[in-house]
Amino acid sequence: MSNSSAQISAPATARQDGRRFNDAVKRTALALLVPVLVLICWQVVGQSAQFSGAVPTPGRVASAWYDWIFADAGMGLNPYLGTWASNVQYSTLRVIQGFSLAMLIGIPLGLAIGWSRLASLTLDPMVQGLRPIPITAWLPFSIALFGIRDMGSIFLIFLGGFYAIVVNTTQGARDIDRNLVRAASMMGASSSQLLRRVVLPAAMPSIFTGLRIGLGISWTAVIVSEMVAVKSGLGYVLWDAYYVGRMDIVLADMASIGLMGFISDRLIVMIEHKILVWRILQNH
Amino acid sequence: MSDIFVSELSKTYGGASPVQALDNIDLQVNTGEFVALLGPSGCGKSTLLNLIAGFETPSSGTLTVGSQPVTAPGPSRGVVFQEAALFPWLNVWENVVFGPKIAGQSKGDYVERAEDMLNITGLSAFKNHLPVQLSGGMRQRVGIARVLTLGSRVLLMDEPFGALDAQTRLTMQELLLSVWQQLRTTVVFVTHDIDEAILLADTIYVMSARPGRIATRIPVPIERPRSLDLITSELFNGLKRDIMQQMRH
What's this model's pTM, rounded to 2 decimal places? Predict the structure, then answer.
């Protein structure tokens, strides 16, 4: 009996898997259709006599990118041979440092503002007052304060991530279901236990929203700051390549930044799915 | 001996137009007594429960539980909420042992009791489920198992079955009857359902609205253990008729 049912269900799941696979193929094909067409047009137009030279073709960008990643650095005279990995590493490291700092300060601060009336009255006006100053406007101040060094860049990245994390965490802590707080205090929770065991987990979905937005802004901040405040990283290469007229490297650099932003966002989403299983089940 | 002692208790909500939610409430609940607060919505029955729980503070009057004045919520008064109010990020087991765990009790002190309470509420097979994976009735069972594990002196239940469908409500009432039969805790049960009040309670306090007052106290002279069959009996219907008449006044 159980054997026959297993035999019946096996082909059914295989068919289901097959359908899901076909769906995925179709979706990927549709998603790639427009970008591929754009690339083809770009290649054709770029090769024509009128436009050649103004903007590098996708082919040239790809080959410059390849050399930038894989070519032998040689004597190190050409900065665009084999230096990709180290520049990606510089930028990523700065983002990790600045963004970690933003989380370390932003999440507790947001919880405090959202949870305590006193913290809300004393700290929220300052956060809201400073927030409208764009992070790019902080650049000269940051260089004056930290010099042309890593810290100047990390400070901007921190600011970029910080506001999004604070604001969303505050919202999450404010929106907490009153009965959850009542239930916990009825069971004898102290205020620190309430904060750690009820307010923090309840605010977690909003915190993750803040992390995703903040990380995007942090990547903007690292590029801007590296153009001005330091002499390494993807932002520095971007500006430098523009100055020496290497548009192929400029475009390869832009694509690299996009790629890193995409990967780091996926990373956060992966962690979110691990931690917020309850939330994902709730939404289905 | 009275477990809950309420005397001349009033509650007014301030603001531009103050609302008197409770006016001069006198109420005594004996140890092991099952009391129902019955009344239409807006009669202040939930406010009274919130005051006993310590979620809100009275405007005037005396309120003691176990001869201690109530100043804040605490594990001596376990509350079952209408929407269960479980922590959605914790599974059934973690929800049920939340109280003893944060009180710093060692595992040996609460595991057995929690297992027992899950057992009598029929949840043993669902320990690892998240609240979102349970039906409304099952979630309410967890809410009950949670306060039973807490070992509260008094259970306060705020229309715990009000959001459930009729079928599930009957099952839950039967469950509560059998649980109470075993544990005999003091219970204050808020409801607007006359049948529910008669079926469960030893004493019914009928409340009237605007301002919230206790209109009458009605003892329920039905023997225990009780079962659902009661609902169709002559005695039950007579009581129900009386209460309905009083509620109309």
Answer: 0.88
